[in-house]
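Entry 12.
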Amino acid sequence: MPGRSFAALAAALALSSAASAAEFKSALSAAISYDSPSERGRKIAIILAGTPVEVIVGLDRWLKVRDVTGAINWVERRLLSDRRTVLANVDRLVVRNEASTAAPPSFEAERNVVLELLEGPRFGWIKVRHQDGDTGYARAVEVWGL
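Predicted 3D structure (C-alpha cells):
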C-alpha cells in the first residue's frame, strides 16, 4: 500500500502545481495602476503598453496584479489583454536562431524590453518576437512574465 499512497500524493501535487500556474496578461496601452480596486484610489504607476503583469486575483472590473518589481496594485480588467509578452530581465538578453547557447544570435534586447511570447518554455527556452519583427529563442530564466 505505500506505493499507492506515494502515487496518490504525487498525483495531488501535480494537480495542485498545474492549478497554481501563474496567469499573465499584458497592457493593451498605457494603464494606470491603483492602490485599491477603484478609480478613486491613489494612482500608483503607469504600466506601459505591452508590459506583462501577473494576475493575483480578479474582481468584477478590476485585477490585482504584480509587476516585474514585485509591486502589487490594481488595474482595470479592460486595459489588459490575454496577449502574452515577456520582459528581458537581464542587462543584455541574447536571442538566438535556435534553442541552444551554441546557436548564432538573432538579436539582442536590453533589460525591460517587451518581447511577444510565441512559444512557451520548452527545455528552458522560449520563442519570442521583437516589435521590429525579429524572432528567436531566449533562455526562459532571463525573462520575466512566464
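Annotation: DSSP finds one helix and 14 strands in the chain. The chain has a mean pLDDT of 89.
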